[in-house]
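Researcher: Next sequence.
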Amino acid sequence: MLTTTMLLLSLQGWAQEQKDSSEVNTLDGHALHEVTVSAHRGGRVKTSGLGNTELISSKELLRAACCNLGESFTTNPSVDVNYADAATGAQQIKLLGLSGTYVQMLSENIPNYRGLASPYALGYIPGPWMQSIQVSKGASSVKNGYESITGQINVEFKKPQATPWANANVYLNSDQKLEANLGANLHLSDKWSAALLGHYEILDKAHDDNDDGFADMPKMRQGSLMGRVAYMSDSYMFQAAVKGLKEHREGGQNVHNAQFTMHNAQSPYLIDITNERYEAFTKNAFILNPERMTNIALILSGSIHHERSLYGNTPYDADQRNGYASLMFETDFDEHHSLSTGISLNHDWLDDQNHWYPPYLDYGITSGQVTDETTPGIYAQYTYKIGEQFTLMGGLRWDHSNLWGSFVTPRMHVKYSPSDIITLRGSVGKGYRTPHILAENSYLLASNRMLRINGDIGQEKAWNYGLSAQMKIPVGERTLELNAEYYYTHFLQQAIIDYDMGQVHKMGDGDKSFSHTIQIDATYEVLPKLNVTAAWRWNDVKATYNGELRQKPMNSRYKGLLTASYAPGLGKWQFDATLQLNGGGRLPDNHGNGLWDEHFKAYEQVSAQVTRFFRHWSIYAGGENLTGFKQKNAIIGADNPWGKDFDATMIYGPVHGRVFYIGARINWEKI
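Model: Next structure:
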């Protein structure tokens, strides 16, 4: 077991690890004295906190190329990442069998990447910028708001206040995609520090491995820069950061000819997407009584996002602004009782425009529709604890939206450890979210099939229930770590994307929509320094489509994973390999047209990497999707993209084959 001494940074649970500068934020906000994590043999560890949370450390991120957040879950059995379509390169995440829109995305415990940022958010966070990732399943704390339904994913960036460091990373793959990252921090005084992180990537050549006339991945250029400062004293702590990003994607048919016009029926089908995003945040923590952990914290954040895009003949332009504020108070009454309470304000402004509507698109709203939602809220959260054996936490928050009125979010967690061998956890909670259909699913426009979006979608509401058991069983001289869990998500109201009928509508009265997920995984050091994880997950995700309860399309029924890591001798070499088995599932109804099958079969994927470590740098080489599996007929009607059957959105698996890569990392840390 690995014990990490934590420094309390704020009521939110900001904590700096003194060993490797990674942060662990417990569900109840109490990263106070010590946080114990297990399975230190690898970089994916189960925290000992109240919630069912996995910490993906910087060590785990080195096991693959991890160019961005979306590629950081290759060795993770809980999170699925796949492309949303075969044309734009947009990635989507799935947790507990459901879309990533039901996962609350956080950056340093601040709600982020909502609405317009959703389709490409996984590519907006460079891997070398990340210090750690925390994946929490099920109902989460009410501190971060009401939006979490299936869980939370929180990203911690490298900190300016950490031990002085500088790093660089260069990556090149067989598709000629090139990435470069630079970062460093500087201690200006004993209290002030600053850091700068930079990223640039370019893919300037179109590839068409399946010979359907469309680029398998769009050409892309992206640049981003983050600057941040920190002030740390015994009684007051301050952090602030600004980030800017610009990205351009160019996909579609491979023949790009400037003399073609969008009204020329013989012109190629092109996709052109430009995104600009700017973010800023500040954190302030006032430590009133360190012994009682009495603190006041203030968080302020804001973002601006612009998108200008064209899908064939269909333009989609949108702008979004978000502002968020949270004022929190937390204290321990004694070793058994603690309280956290606070107020928050969230404001979303989204200008969602379609200047021209093709005949197959029935959006149901006027051009230039503006969504303006302001939601103030208040919460209280009580925790009762008996040593390390028993913890009970109950939270309740009240929010009022100018669009949906008042609503209440209850959540409860319990943890019981009758011995050092087993830990049992349970959770229940409700979640809400405001859907922005085209902003969050803009890739749906890469299609000529009918898309009818009913204007009155409403607010989504769901309950989530979870049970888990974590066991540490001595086997020989080592410990076998077993984890078993079950989660049930039950929607009371949901925006249904019906691929069968080509429409998006609100769940009707009496309709059902739910997800059952069962997962079992085991981790064991089978030989000295050879760590193996095996996992199996079963998904039963159903919703009511045209009055019939059916499996959600393009969703694998099960997933198997086997991953191994071997670092012999002094650890100068490291070998990593991962096998994924993705189960089959249902495809949308073809209504007898025969253009695609109505089911897809299971498929395997293999990835591997070898790394050579030196004192301050390392080199690595590897491959992804080494089985070479590619979804057949990924783009329906690719031979006639202007026809009514054209559709690039029915994706269940990889759209490109094997990819090989090489790279180098430079890491310097003051000793």
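Model: The two ends are 25 Å apart (CA to CA). DSSP finds two helices and 41 strands in the chain.
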